[in-house]
Amino acid sequence: MSNSTDSWSRFDRRERLLRFFGLLAGLVILVAAWRAMEVNYGYAVTAPRELADLFSRMYPPNVGYSRKIVGPLLETINISILGTALAIVMAIPVAFLGASNTTPNKPAYLLGKFIISFTRSVNVIIWALIFVVIFGPGALAGVLAISIRSIGFTAKLIAEAIEEIDRGSVEAVTAAGASPVDVLIYSIVPQIKPAFISVATLRWDINVRASTIIGFVGAGGIGVPLQTEINYFNWEAVLTILISILGLVLISEGISAYLRKKVM
Q1: DSSP character for 138?
Q2: Which of 133, 163, 192, 260 is paired with 231 by a 20 to 30 Å CA distance?
Q3: Quick one: pLDDT band at residue 2, thresholds 50, 70, 90?
Q4: In a domain, 96, yes or no
Q5: Cα–Cα dist 87/82, whole Å
Q6: Cα dihedral sign, 153-154-159-164
Q7: Average pLDDT over residues 91-103
Q8: CA angle, corner 143, sides to 205 and 79, nearest 5?
Q9: Residue 255's CATH number
Q10: Is the pTM of this model over 0.85?
């Protein structure tokens, strides 16, 4: 009988070497990426002083200016609501195409996945720039930018919910002689309803935030006066706008969390 005792190891020698060189390669890439950015450390050193100087110019906020931003704030809310609603309308058929158990065929499935990936891959600011060029500055460009950007996110999560439905319910309704539309209404929709409401409210919450910045490129909302006041170095008004944006985001977060809690 051998007196030697083999110690147990989760990884063998080859796996340990692969993990070591993988970690080393990751560190090399990280260092190379950092060096490629050519960070100006002189600015980094003076950043605290510049930040303190900026805050001293911002404070106190211009309370009287708040009357001028009520309209842009309401426009921001309208953009987020209309953009989300339009996105949901367009995302529902895309979700059924992109779900493996409801898509009619392979080409339709690939089309659904392409739409989901494409709309998610382009930032909302880019979409806003595109629609500002097409339709001109204003809330319409903002609504379209928000809606197109939201299709991929909404359709992806709804498609995943569709793929997780109980097939037994679908088979039971089908066996009773129901048409495909009846199967959709009485079997699939009730099962994905909680996920649908949760996704819709979460996306609206995200779109409220997005709607506050698309004005920087002329797509309406509170971002338009924010960009204007920054250009004029009216820092007290800028702080007033930032506080209003923070309040709007906190309110939307609370509403979204409440609605998601109700359907969970």
Answers
A1: S
A2: 133
A3: very low
A4: yes
A5: 8
A6: positive
A7: 87
A8: 50
A9: 1.10.3720.10
A10: no
